[in-house]
Amino acid sequence: MNTYGYARVSSTDQNEDRQLIALHQAGVDDKFIFVDKQSGKDFNRPQYQKLLRKLKAGDLLYIKSIDRLGRNYEEIQVQWRILTKEKGVDICVIDMPLLDTRRGKDLMGTFLSDIVLQVLSFVAENERNNIRQRQAEGIAAARARGVHLGRPVKEAPADFDRIVKAWENKEITIAEAMQMAGMSETTFYRRRREMQLIRGTKK
User: Fold this and answer.
1) Residue 10 bears catalytic tag
2) C-alpha span between 5 and 76 (Å, rounded)
3) What's CA 12's distance to the chain center, in Å?
4) Domain 3-134 grouped into CATH 3.40.50.1390
5) What angle do CA 90, 37, 2 make, to 5 degrees?
6) Active-site annotation holder among 10, 39, 65, 121
């Protein structure tokens, strides 16, 4: 029997340290820990698929929390069934000791474990939906207050009008104009259009 660990974060800029610490404390060796750094939008995750190929009946898999297995109730249920029923693997969810398939192998133990799994899967999905809703409401409220979201607006230099005229008169190239203005090509053309609109309004 081998003991494995699986950790997942939703993007490359998130940190998996908390999950790794928990797996180490559970006694999982580094060489048996698989980590994916990408969205849980599907299960075409390289490290998870590699782990599935290695797992054999009787192996033990540790995960920090139940939502590491999927993004919603249905996916968590499917992956749990694949691991425990089809692969014959034991699973221990560190944050929820009741979800440890090594305990209660009889019918009653399996029944109670299945109930806990269903409840926790639903809670995990519901919490993610609540987080998305709160984020959407926060963004809407910020916009209503006039808060600018996203990248800061690139300010044009004081001599931007002179730079544009020099470019229009073919005294400098577009590359030189962009460098002098400190702008990308897209930003340069956009600010030029804005400047032309302002000129037209003033006439």
Assistant:
1) yes
2) 16
3) 8
4) yes
5) 25
6) 10
